[in-house]
Amino acid sequence: MKIAIVGAGAMGSRFGYMLHEAGNEVLLIDAWKEHVDIINKEGLTVEENGAFNKVKIPAMLPEDAIEAPDLIILFTKSMGLESMLKSIKNILGKHTKVLCLLNGLGHNETVEKYVDRKNILMGVTLWTAGLAGPGHVVLTGDGSLEVQNIDPNMEVETKEICNILSQAGLKAHYSEDVIFSTWRKACVNGTLNSCCTILDCNIKEFGELKEAPQLIRNIIKEFADIAAKYGVELNVEEVAKVVEGVYDPSQAGAHYPSMHQDLIQNHRLTEIDYINGYVSRKGKEFNINTQYNDLCTAIVHAKEQLLIK
Ligand code: NAD
Ligand code: AOT
Q: Quick check: CB of 293 below 6 Å from ligand 2?
Protein backbone atom coordinates (compact mmCIF):
# COMPACT_ATOMS: atom_id res chain seq x y z
CA MET A 1 0.00 0.00 0.00
CA LYS A 2 1.18 3.57 -0.73
CA ILE A 3 1.27 5.36 2.60
CA ALA A 4 2.29 8.97 3.31
CA ILE A 5 3.12 9.88 6.88
CA VAL A 6 2.30 13.55 7.28
CA GLY A 7 4.18 14.94 10.25
CA ALA A 8 7.09 12.54 10.42
CA GLY A 9 8.45 13.49 13.83
CA ALA A 10 8.79 10.90 16.61
CA MET A 11 5.51 9.04 16.09
CA GLY A 12 5.39 9.54 12.34
CA SER A 13 8.88 8.06 12.09
CA ARG A 14 7.88 5.07 14.24
CA PHE A 15 4.80 4.31 12.14
CA GLY A 16 6.65 5.03 8.88
CA TYR A 17 9.49 2.71 9.90
CA MET A 18 7.22 -0.16 10.96
CA LEU A 19 5.04 0.13 7.84
CA HIS A 20 8.11 0.32 5.60
CA GLU A 21 9.66 -2.77 7.19
CA ALA A 22 6.40 -4.64 6.47
CA GLY A 23 6.80 -3.95 2.74
CA ASN A 24 4.58 -0.90 2.23
CA GLU A 25 5.63 1.99 0.00
CA VAL A 26 6.13 4.70 2.61
CA LEU A 27 6.81 8.41 2.12
CA LEU A 28 7.68 10.63 5.11
CA ILE A 29 6.36 14.18 4.70
CA ASP A 30 7.55 16.84 7.11
CA ALA A 31 8.08 20.60 7.17
CA TRP A 32 11.37 20.36 9.11
CA LYS A 33 13.95 20.65 6.32
CA GLU A 34 16.99 19.52 8.29
CA HIS A 35 15.13 16.34 9.32
CA VAL A 36 13.98 15.63 5.75
CA ASP A 37 17.47 16.27 4.32
CA ILE A 38 19.22 13.96 6.80
CA ILE A 39 16.70 11.14 6.23
CA ASN A 40 17.22 11.39 2.47
CA LYS A 41 20.99 11.59 2.75
CA GLU A 42 21.77 9.09 5.52
CA GLY A 43 18.52 7.22 6.07
CA LEU A 44 16.29 7.31 9.16
CA THR A 45 18.24 6.25 12.24
CA VAL A 46 16.08 3.94 14.34
CA GLU A 47 17.32 3.33 17.89
CA GLU A 48 15.52 0.48 19.61
CA ASN A 49 16.67 -1.13 22.86
CA GLY A 50 20.22 0.15 22.35
CA ALA A 51 20.45 -1.20 18.77
CA PHE A 52 20.86 1.24 15.86
CA ASN A 53 19.44 0.67 12.40
CA LYS A 54 19.66 2.98 9.36
CA VAL A 55 16.64 2.68 7.12
CA LYS A 56 16.22 4.17 3.65
CA ILE A 57 12.76 5.75 3.51
CA PRO A 58 12.12 8.67 1.15
CA ALA A 59 11.26 11.97 2.85
CA MET A 60 9.84 15.19 1.42
CA LEU A 61 8.71 18.69 2.32
CA PRO A 62 4.90 19.09 2.06
CA GLU A 63 5.14 21.47 -0.91
CA ASP A 64 7.14 18.91 -2.91
CA ALA A 65 4.63 16.07 -2.52
CA ILE A 66 2.39 15.65 -5.58
CA GLU A 67 1.24 12.04 -5.76
CA ALA A 68 -1.94 10.97 -3.91
CA PRO A 69 -1.27 7.86 -1.79
CA ASP A 70 -3.82 5.24 -0.69
CA LEU A 71 -3.47 6.27 2.92
CA ILE A 72 -2.26 9.37 4.75
CA ILE A 73 -1.45 9.09 8.45
CA LEU A 74 -1.55 12.46 10.21
CA PHE A 75 0.98 12.81 13.03
CA THR A 76 1.67 16.54 13.31
CA LYS A 77 1.42 18.32 16.63
CA SER A 78 -2.08 19.70 17.27
CA MET A 79 -1.00 23.29 16.65
CA GLY A 80 0.37 22.36 13.22
CA LEU A 81 -2.55 20.25 11.98
CA GLU A 82 -4.51 22.89 10.13
CA SER A 83 -1.55 24.46 8.31
CA MET A 84 -0.29 20.99 7.37
CA LEU A 85 -3.69 19.99 5.96
CA LYS A 86 -3.65 23.17 3.85
CA SER A 87 -0.19 22.38 2.53
CA ILE A 88 -0.99 18.79 1.46
CA LYS A 89 -4.14 19.60 -0.52
CA ASN A 90 -2.46 18.26 -3.70
CA ILE A 91 -2.13 14.74 -2.37
CA LEU A 92 -5.66 14.39 -1.01
CA GLY A 93 -6.91 12.10 -3.80
CA LYS A 94 -10.56 11.17 -4.35
CA HIS A 95 -9.98 7.80 -2.64
CA THR A 96 -7.11 8.70 -0.30
CA LYS A 97 -8.02 7.68 3.24
CA VAL A 98 -6.79 10.04 5.95
CA LEU A 99 -6.15 8.61 9.42
CA CYS A 100 -5.75 11.20 12.19
CA LEU A 101 -3.78 9.86 15.17
CA LEU A 102 -2.91 13.05 17.02
CA ASN A 103 -3.48 13.30 20.75
CA GLY A 104 -6.05 15.77 21.94
CA LEU A 105 -9.68 16.75 21.45
CA GLY A 106 -11.46 18.52 18.60
CA HIS A 107 -9.25 17.38 15.68
CA ASN A 108 -12.14 15.71 13.80
CA GLU A 109 -13.63 19.17 13.21
CA THR A 110 -10.35 20.45 11.75
CA VAL A 111 -9.86 17.43 9.47
CA GLU A 112 -13.45 17.68 8.20
CA LYS A 113 -12.70 21.17 6.85
CA TYR A 114 -10.20 19.70 4.36
CA VAL A 115 -11.08 16.04 3.81
CA ASP A 116 -14.24 14.41 2.48
CA ARG A 117 -16.01 12.72 5.44
CA LYS A 118 -16.07 9.35 3.67
CA ASN A 119 -12.27 9.33 3.65
CA ILE A 120 -11.72 10.29 7.30
CA LEU A 121 -10.61 7.73 9.86
CA MET A 122 -10.04 8.78 13.45
CA GLY A 123 -7.84 6.89 15.85
CA VAL A 124 -5.85 6.87 19.07
CA THR A 125 -2.63 5.08 19.86
CA LEU A 126 -0.81 3.80 22.92
CA TRP A 127 2.49 3.55 21.01
CA THR A 128 5.21 5.99 22.04
CA ALA A 129 8.36 7.41 20.44
CA GLY A 130 10.94 10.15 20.87
CA LEU A 131 13.32 12.06 18.63
CA ALA A 132 17.00 12.26 19.65
CA GLY A 133 17.65 14.80 16.87
CA PRO A 134 16.87 15.29 13.19
CA GLY A 135 16.61 11.93 11.41
CA HIS A 136 16.97 9.93 14.66
CA VAL A 137 13.97 8.23 16.29
CA VAL A 138 14.10 6.38 19.61
CA LEU A 139 11.64 3.52 20.20
CA THR A 140 10.77 1.90 23.53
CA GLY A 141 7.91 -0.18 24.89
CA ASP A 142 4.86 -1.70 23.30
CA GLY A 143 1.60 -0.28 22.00
CA SER A 144 -1.57 -0.64 19.98
CA LEU A 145 -4.08 1.56 18.25
CA GLU A 146 -7.81 1.91 17.73
CA VAL A 147 -9.28 3.16 14.46
CA GLN A 148 -12.77 3.92 13.15
CA ASN A 149 -14.30 5.55 10.07
CA ILE A 150 -16.53 8.57 10.70
CA ASP A 151 -18.78 7.70 7.73
CA PRO A 152 -20.67 4.55 8.79
CA ASN A 153 -20.47 3.20 5.20
CA MET A 154 -16.69 2.90 5.27
CA GLU A 155 -16.35 0.07 7.80
CA VAL A 156 -15.04 -2.55 5.34
CA GLU A 157 -12.29 -0.26 3.96
CA THR A 158 -11.31 0.78 7.49
CA LYS A 159 -11.01 -2.84 8.64
CA GLU A 160 -8.72 -3.49 5.65
CA ILE A 161 -6.52 -0.60 6.77
CA CYS A 162 -6.46 -2.02 10.31
CA ASN A 163 -5.16 -5.27 8.77
CA ILE A 164 -2.37 -3.46 6.91
CA LEU A 165 -1.37 -1.68 10.13
CA SER A 166 -1.48 -4.91 12.13
CA GLN A 167 0.62 -6.75 9.55
CA ALA A 168 3.29 -4.16 10.37
CA GLY A 169 3.08 -5.12 14.08
CA LEU A 170 1.16 -1.99 15.05
CA LYS A 171 -1.71 -3.95 16.64
CA ALA A 172 -4.57 -1.95 15.13
CA HIS A 173 -8.05 -2.70 16.44
CA TYR A 174 -11.26 -1.59 14.81
CA SER A 175 -13.00 0.64 17.33
CA GLU A 176 -16.78 0.52 17.68
CA ASP A 177 -16.71 3.97 19.30
CA VAL A 178 -13.66 6.04 18.49
CA ILE A 179 -15.12 9.17 20.09
CA PHE A 180 -15.14 7.34 23.42
CA SER A 181 -11.60 6.04 22.76
CA THR A 182 -10.43 9.59 21.97
CA TRP A 183 -11.77 10.90 25.27
CA ARG A 184 -10.21 7.98 27.16
CA LYS A 185 -6.82 8.61 25.51
CA ALA A 186 -7.22 12.35 26.25
CA CYS A 187 -7.46 11.33 29.92
CA VAL A 188 -4.16 9.45 29.62
CA ASN A 189 -2.56 12.60 28.23
CA GLY A 190 -4.49 14.93 30.53
CA THR A 191 -2.99 13.14 33.52
CA LEU A 192 0.45 11.94 32.38
CA ASN A 193 1.54 14.54 29.81
CA SER A 194 0.78 17.54 31.96
CA CYS A 195 1.87 16.03 35.32
CA CYS A 196 5.15 14.58 33.96
CA THR A 197 5.88 17.93 32.32
CA ILE A 198 5.15 19.96 35.45
CA LEU A 199 7.05 17.51 37.68
CA ASP A 200 9.84 16.81 35.13
CA CYS A 201 9.67 13.01 35.39
CA ASN A 202 8.86 9.99 33.26
CA ILE A 203 5.67 7.93 33.50
CA LYS A 204 7.10 5.25 35.80
CA GLU A 205 8.44 7.89 38.23
CA PHE A 206 5.08 9.66 38.23
CA GLY A 207 3.24 6.40 38.90
CA GLU A 208 5.38 5.78 42.01
CA LEU A 209 4.40 9.07 43.65
CA LYS A 210 2.01 8.72 46.59
CA GLU A 211 -0.04 11.64 45.25
CA ALA A 212 -0.53 10.01 41.83
CA PRO A 213 -3.70 7.91 42.47
CA GLN A 214 -5.80 10.80 43.81
CA LEU A 215 -4.36 13.35 41.39
CA ILE A 216 -5.23 11.35 38.28
CA ARG A 217 -8.74 10.60 39.57
CA ASN A 218 -9.41 14.30 40.23
CA ILE A 219 -8.26 15.23 36.72
CA ILE A 220 -10.18 12.37 35.07
CA LYS A 221 -13.38 13.26 36.97
CA GLU A 222 -13.38 16.67 35.27
CA PHE A 223 -12.78 15.09 31.83
CA ALA A 224 -15.75 12.81 32.55
CA ASP A 225 -17.97 15.76 33.51
CA ILE A 226 -17.22 17.50 30.20
CA ALA A 227 -17.40 14.31 28.12
CA ALA A 228 -20.90 13.70 29.51
CA LYS A 229 -22.01 16.95 27.86
CA TYR A 230 -21.12 15.30 24.53
CA GLY A 231 -22.93 12.07 25.38
CA VAL A 232 -19.70 10.22 26.19
CA GLU A 233 -19.79 8.23 29.41
CA LEU A 234 -16.39 7.84 31.08
CA ASN A 235 -16.14 5.72 34.21
CA VAL A 236 -13.50 7.47 36.34
CA GLU A 237 -12.24 4.30 38.02
CA GLU A 238 -12.02 2.36 34.75
CA VAL A 239 -10.11 5.16 33.04
CA ALA A 240 -7.80 5.54 36.06
CA LYS A 241 -6.96 1.84 35.74
CA VAL A 242 -6.09 2.37 32.04
CA VAL A 243 -3.72 5.19 33.04
CA GLU A 244 -2.19 3.08 35.80
CA GLY A 245 -1.78 0.22 33.32
CA VAL A 246 0.85 2.14 31.33
CA TYR A 247 3.16 2.90 34.32
CA ASP A 248 5.02 -0.36 33.81
CA PRO A 249 8.22 0.02 31.72
CA SER A 250 7.03 -2.84 29.48
CA GLN A 251 4.24 -0.42 28.45
CA ALA A 252 5.07 3.31 28.56
CA GLY A 253 6.89 3.62 31.93
CA ALA A 254 10.25 4.60 30.44
CA HIS A 255 8.60 7.21 28.26
CA TYR A 256 8.75 10.97 28.80
CA PRO A 257 5.41 12.15 27.36
CA SER A 258 5.51 14.20 24.17
CA MET A 259 4.60 17.33 26.17
CA HIS A 260 7.73 16.81 28.26
CA GLN A 261 9.74 16.27 25.08
CA ASP A 262 8.33 19.52 23.68
CA LEU A 263 8.65 21.84 26.64
CA ILE A 264 11.29 20.51 29.02
CA GLN A 265 13.63 18.88 26.51
CA ASN A 266 13.21 21.15 23.46
CA HIS A 267 11.69 24.38 24.80
CA ARG A 268 8.81 24.20 22.32
CA LEU A 269 5.13 25.10 22.79
CA THR A 270 2.91 22.27 24.03
CA GLU A 271 -0.45 20.75 23.07
CA ILE A 272 -1.91 21.70 26.47
CA ASP A 273 -4.77 23.73 24.91
CA TYR A 274 -6.00 20.58 23.09
CA ILE A 275 -5.90 18.42 26.23
CA ASN A 276 -6.37 19.91 29.75
CA GLY A 277 -6.95 23.34 28.19
CA TYR A 278 -9.84 21.94 26.12
CA VAL A 279 -11.55 20.66 29.28
CA SER A 280 -10.85 23.94 31.04
CA ARG A 281 -12.39 26.00 28.19
CA LYS A 282 -15.43 23.74 27.98
CA GLY A 283 -15.81 23.97 31.77
CA LYS A 284 -16.23 27.73 31.47
CA GLU A 285 -18.64 27.30 28.56
CA PHE A 286 -20.85 24.79 30.46
CA ASN A 287 -20.33 26.32 33.91
CA ILE A 288 -18.69 23.14 35.24
CA ASN A 289 -15.91 23.19 37.81
CA THR A 290 -12.63 22.08 36.17
CA GLN A 291 -10.18 23.41 38.75
CA TYR A 292 -7.54 20.69 38.35
CA ASN A 293 -7.44 21.11 34.58
CA ASP A 294 -7.46 24.91 34.92
CA LEU A 295 -4.41 24.67 37.17
CA CYS A 296 -2.53 22.20 34.92
CA THR A 297 -3.19 24.44 31.91
CA ALA A 298 -2.09 27.61 33.71
CA ILE A 299 1.10 26.02 35.06
CA VAL A 300 2.10 24.58 31.68
CA HIS A 301 1.46 27.92 29.98
CA ALA A 302 3.48 29.68 32.69
CA LYS A 303 6.33 27.20 32.20
CA GLU A 304 6.17 27.84 28.43
CA GLN A 305 6.80 31.52 29.16
CA LEU A 306 9.75 30.69 31.42
CA LEU A 307 11.40 28.27 29.01
CA ILE A 308 10.62 29.64 25.56
CA LYS A 309 12.47 32.85 24.88
P1 NAD B 1 7.06 15.51 17.14
O2 NAD B 1 7.26 16.83 17.79
O3 NAD B 1 8.16 14.53 17.25
O4 NAD B 1 6.75 15.75 15.60
C5 NAD B 1 5.76 16.66 15.22
C6 NAD B 1 6.34 17.69 14.29
O7 NAD B 1 7.31 18.50 14.94
C8 NAD B 1 7.06 17.07 13.11
O9 NAD B 1 6.64 17.78 12.00
C10 NAD B 1 8.52 17.28 13.42
O11 NAD B 1 9.33 17.38 12.31
C12 NAD B 1 8.49 18.57 14.14
N13 NAD B 1 9.68 18.68 15.01
C14 NAD B 1 10.04 17.85 15.98
N15 NAD B 1 11.20 18.26 16.56
C16 NAD B 1 11.55 19.40 15.91
C17 NAD B 1 12.65 20.31 16.05
N18 NAD B 1 13.60 20.12 16.96
N19 NAD B 1 12.70 21.37 15.22
C20 NAD B 1 11.72 21.58 14.29
N21 NAD B 1 10.66 20.75 14.13
C22 NAD B 1 10.58 19.68 14.93
O23 NAD B 1 5.66 14.95 17.64
P24 NAD B 1 5.24 13.49 18.10
O25 NAD B 1 5.72 13.25 19.45
O26 NAD B 1 5.51 12.55 17.03
O27 NAD B 1 3.67 13.72 18.22
C28 NAD B 1 2.78 13.74 17.11
C29 NAD B 1 1.37 13.57 17.64
O30 NAD B 1 1.28 12.26 18.22
C31 NAD B 1 1.00 14.54 18.75
O32 NAD B 1 -0.36 14.84 18.71
C33 NAD B 1 1.31 13.76 20.01
O34 NAD B 1 0.60 14.20 21.13
C35 NAD B 1 0.88 12.36 19.56
N36 NAD B 1 1.47 11.25 20.30
C37 NAD B 1 2.79 11.28 20.64
C38 NAD B 1 3.33 10.18 21.31
C39 NAD B 1 4.79 10.12 21.63
O40 NAD B 1 5.19 9.20 22.32
N41 NAD B 1 5.64 11.01 21.17
C42 NAD B 1 2.52 9.10 21.64
C43 NAD B 1 1.18 9.11 21.24
C44 NAD B 1 0.67 10.20 20.56
C1 AOT C 1 1.60 7.91 25.99
N2 AOT C 1 2.15 9.09 25.57
O3 AOT C 1 0.52 9.85 24.22
C4 AOT C 1 1.16 6.96 25.10
O5 AOT C 1 3.62 11.11 24.83
O6 AOT C 1 1.89 12.18 24.07
C7 AOT C 1 2.44 11.18 24.52
C8 AOT C 1 1.61 9.97 24.75
C9 AOT C 1 0.66 5.79 25.58
C10 AOT C 1 0.59 5.54 26.91
C11 AOT C 1 1.04 6.50 27.79
C12 AOT C 1 1.56 7.66 27.32
A: no
CATH number at residue 141: 3.40.50.720
In this structure, are 15 and 160 located in the same domain?
A: yes
Q: How far apart are the first and last CA of the chain?
A: 43
CATH code where residue 184 lies: 1.10.1040.10
Residue 110: other Cβ atoms inside 10 A: 16
135 residue type, one letter = G
**Domain end residue (candidates: 176, 205, 237):** 176
77, 185, 221, 282: which one is catalytic? Answer: 185
Is residue 56 annotated as part of the catalytic site, yes or no? Answer: no
Residue closest by Cα to atom 7 of ligand 1: 9
Which pLDDT band, with edges at 50, 70 and 90, does 5 fall under? very high
Question: Does the global pTM surpass 0.85?
Answer: yes
pLDDT digits (tens, 9 = 90+) for 142-171: 899 999 999 999 999 999 999 999 999 999
Question: For residue 84, what is the enclosing H or E element?
Answer: helix 81-87
Per-residue pLDDT tens over the stretch 26-44: 999 999 999 999 999 999 9
